[in-house]
Amino acid sequence: MDFKPEKPRSLVLRKGNVTDKFRFCLRGLQIPSITEKQVKSLGKVFKSTLKDTATLRVAHLDYCSGQYFPGFESMYLIFKYFQEAWEPYDVLPSPTNLFAWSLKDTPACLLCQKRGSLEHILSCCPKALGERRYRWRHDQAGEKPSGSRNLAGGLLATARDWQLKVDLGKQLKIPETIATTTLRPDMVLFSESSRQMVLLELTKPWKDRMEESFKRKRAKHEELASECRNRGWKTCCFPIEVGCQGFASQLLCRALKLLGMRGLHKNKAIRNIMDAAEKASRWLWINRADPWTTQAT
Question: In the predicted model, is pLDDT for residue 76 greater than 50?
Answer without folding.
Answer: no
